[in-house]
Amino acid sequence: MQLPEKIQNSVLRQIAEKVVSHTPVSENDARIMLNTPDILELGMIAHHVRTELHGNRAYYGVNMNLNYTNICELKCPLCAFSKDRGEPGAYVMSLDEIREKVSQAAARGIDEVHIVGGVNPELKLDYFENMLRSIKEIDPDLFIVAFTAVEYDYFARINNLPVDTVFDRLIAAGVGALPGGGAEIFAPHIREHIAPLKISGKQWLDIMRIAHSKGLETNVTLLYNHGETAGDIVDHLYRIRRLQDETHGFKTFVPLVFHEENTKIKARRPEPTGFDDIRLFATARVYLHNLPHIKALWMYVGEKMAQILLRFGVDDIGSTYDNEKVVHAAGAKTADIGSEDHLKRLITGAHCSPVRTTAGYGRKTGSRI
C-alpha cells in the first residue's frame, strides 16, 4: 500500500502525495502539520522521509563540550549561562585549562570537541587560534565544531576584521564545522524580546552564507516555546529552506525547547506537551526536504522523547556532551554527560541501528528532491 493510501486525514493525505512525488510542501502545509491532532499519520509521513534518507540508521556522537567563558556582553534575557565580568561564578578558561580538559577527554576516546561561549571583549582572535591549534596538537583527528554565527560576527567586530578573514584564520587553525546556536527564532518581534542585543536573524543567515561559501557545513537551530506562534516557526523554517536551496551548507536542523529556569523570560504558555514536540520535529522533517538530518538532543527533550522522535522523522539524538553547561544552567533535568553505551541502548531500544559519527557525518547525504 502506498503512503498516501495509509493516511485517513484528507489534508495530510495531500501532503503525503507531495512527499512521495518529491514535491516540496508549502508553508501552509507546514502550518497544518504543526496544528494537526493526527500525529500518528503525520509521523508516518515524517518517518517515510527519514527512511528514504537514512534507512534504519540513527546517529550519535562521542564528544565533549567546551564552554570557554561565560562572560558575555549580550546578556540575553533567554540565557541563564552568561555572567558579567567580576560577577560570582564568572570565568574564562586559560589555554592550559583547555588543554588539560581536552587531553582528559581525548584519553577517554572522544571524536569531537564542541566549542561555544560568551562574547567576551577580553578575548581576541589569537586566543581562539591558539585554542584550536592546541586541540589539534593533542589529537589531529579530533573534529572541531566551533563558535556560533553570533561569535563569528563578534570576533570580526572586536578585532576590526572582515568576517571572511575571521573564517579563513579559524579554519586554518582547525575549525571543521559550525554549531547552529544563536539562530533562536528569526522573527524580529520575538527576537527583540528574547535576545535584543544579538545579531538579527538576517545577519545570522548572512554569516552562515559566508561559512557555507568557505566549504563549512553547519547546523541550524530553532528555539521554541517562549512565546512564538506557529507562523513564527513556519517563517523560521522557510528562511532555512531558502538559504539551503542557495548554499546546500546546512547539515542538521536542531529544534531546542526553551528552558526558562534562571532566565529573565517567563514562558507565555505551559511546558510543551509530547504532541507539541512530536508535531514540530515531524513537520521539520517533512518541510526541510533539502536538509539531510534532523536532530533531537536527548539532553533537551529527555531520553524517552528522543527515542520516540526516532520514529517521527529524527535520525540523530545528539552526543555524550561531557560537562554541558548552557541548558543545565537553565534547569534541564537530564544528566550533563551521557555514555556511549547508554546512547546506543536508547537507539536500539527504538529499533534503530546506532551509527557513531561527528558533525561531519563522515559522508555526503543529499536532498530528497
Give structural notes.
There is one protein chain. This protein is α/β, with parallel strands linked by helices and 369 residues long. The chain is built from 16 helices and ten strands. It has helices spanning 3-6, 10-20, 27-35, 39-54, 95-107, 125-138, 149-158, 163-173, 188-194, 201-213, 230-247, 274-287, 298-301, 303-309, 326-329, 340-349, and strands at residues 57-61, 63-66, 112-115, 143-146, 177-178, 217-224, 250-257, 293-294, 316-319, 353-357. The strands form three sheets. It has a four-stranded parallel β-sheet, with helices on one face. A three-stranded parallel β-sheet has the order 9-1-10, covered by helices on one side. A three-stranded parallel β-sheet has the order 2-3-4, covered by helices on one side. The radius of gyration is 20 Å and the shape is globular. The model is unreliable at 324-334 (pLDDT under 50).
List the helices and strands and how they pair.
Blueprint: H1 3-6, H2 10-20, H3 27-35, H4 39-54, E1 57-61, E2 63-66, H5 95-107, E3 112-115, H6 125-138, E4 143-146, H7 149-158, H8 163-173, E5 177-178, H9 188-194, H10 201-213, E6 217-224, H11 230-247, E7 250-257, H12 274-287, E8 293-294, H13 298-301, H14 303-309, E9 316-319, H15 326-329, H16 340-349, E10 353-357
Parallel strand pairs: 1-9, 1-10, 2-3, 3-4, 5-6, 6-7, 7-8
Helix pairs in contact: 2-4, 3-11, 3-12, 4-12, 5-6, 6-8, 7-8, 7-10, 10-11
